[in-house]
């Protein structure tokens, strides 16, 4: 099975069993980087997972 490099908000919610509305709120707050294409918002699952593991600390691109 091929792993996707970017997921929509809905796909991210399903993959991480996390509320969709909570992800949308985090995206609006700029908690972690996303790719915005028109109406769609794509999330890198590795970045989202590191955000969750850090306890919700704002994403720091210098860490990776």
In terms of topology, how is this protein built?
Elements lengths: L6 E2 H8 L3 H10 L5 E3 L2 E4 L1 H9 L11
Antiparallel strand pairs: 1-3, 2-3
InterPro entries: Tn1545/Tn916_Xis
Organism: Catenisphaera adipataccumulans
Protein name: Helix-turn-helix domain-containing protein
Helix content: 40-55%
- Stretches where pLDDT falls below 50 for ≥5 residues? none
Largest sheet, in brief, is:
3 strands, antiparallel
Series of H and E elements: EHHEEH
Count the domains: 1
Strand arrangement within the widest β-sheet reads: 1-3-2
| Spatial shape | globular
Radius of gyration of CA atoms, rounded to a whole number: 11 Å
Number of helices: 3
What is the arithmetic mean of pLDDT? 88
Beta-strand percentage? 5-15%
Structural class: alpha+beta
- Could you tell me how far the N terminus lies from the C terminus, measured between alpha carbons in angstroms? 26 Å
Topology, number of strands = 3
Give a quick precis of the structure.
This protein has 64 residues and is an alpha+beta fold. The chain is 42% helix and 14% strand. The protein is built from three helices and three strands; from the N terminus they run βααββα.
Summarize this structure as a short list of keywords or feature phrases:
alpha+beta, 64 residues, 42% helix, 3-stranded antiparallel β-sheet
How would you portray this structure in words?
This protein has 64 residues and is an alpha+beta fold. It is globular and about 25 Å long. The chain has helices at residues 9-16, 20-29, 45-53, and strands spanning 7-8, 35-37, 40-43. 42% of the residues lie in helices and 14% in strands.
């Amino acid at each position: 099975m091929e792993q996707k490099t970017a997921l929509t908000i809905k796909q991210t919610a399903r993959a991480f069993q996390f509320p969709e509305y909570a992800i949308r709120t985090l995206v609006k707050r700029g908690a972690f980087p996303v790719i915005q294409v028109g109406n769609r918002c794509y999330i890198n699952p590795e970045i989202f997972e590191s955000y969750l593991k850090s306890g919700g600390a704002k994403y720091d691109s210098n860490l990776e």
